[in-house]
Amino acid sequence: MNIHALIQEIDTFLHTIYKEADTWFDKAESLRKYVPEDNAWTIDEILEHIVLTNKYLLILVEKGTNKALRNIQNKDLAVELENYVFHKDRLDEVGFYKSFIWVRPEHMQPKGEKKLADIRDELEMQVLRCRCYLAQLKNGEGILYKTTMSVNELGKIDVYEYIYFLGKHIQRHIQQMQKNELAYKNNNI
Predict the structure, then answer these.
(1) pTM of the full predicted structure?
(2) Residue 138 — φ and ψ, nearest 5°?
(3) Residue 80 in contact with residue 144, Cβ under 8 Å?
(4) Quick one: which of 33, 36, 95, 115 could link to 40 by a disulfide (CB 3.0–4.6 Å)?
(5) Domains (range + CATH), the chain
(6) Nearest CA-CA partner of 130 in 168, 155, 157, 164
């Protein structure tokens, strides 16, 4: 596995998925506030949820980054990289809306307490933080620390996988927003 190519792939994916998510902030307010017939979240609520979830994921990413950088003292990175497997197939499933059932914790539920502009700014900063962590872990150090991820029974995942997961979570909710937009258009024809 070429770790530098993987890091670049994750970085490019984060940049691309962020740009796509950012376009939703500029959609018409009537669309963003549209409540689907199944009483699912509005687009504004989805955007807030993404930022709330990222907030907690980034706590783990930051701790993982720091621990991985410390672990470089105790492990032979070259040896670890020889046997490294990035579990892309398992993580890609996270990017598909309704691909699995997961009950999110209460603190990740949108409450409508933040201004849309603040949510937008926070999302941008969160993605930039992820990209900075990738830069800090530029030689493969991110494989040296794993944390348990309960979502979709992923188990222990490394820092790169956690960062990729964050991007896939955004992708998942972009699909949800697209579903809302389609329902909105069908109901307003």
Answers:
(1) 0.93
(2) -70, -15
(3) yes
(4) 36
(5) 3-187 (1.20.120.450)
(6) 164
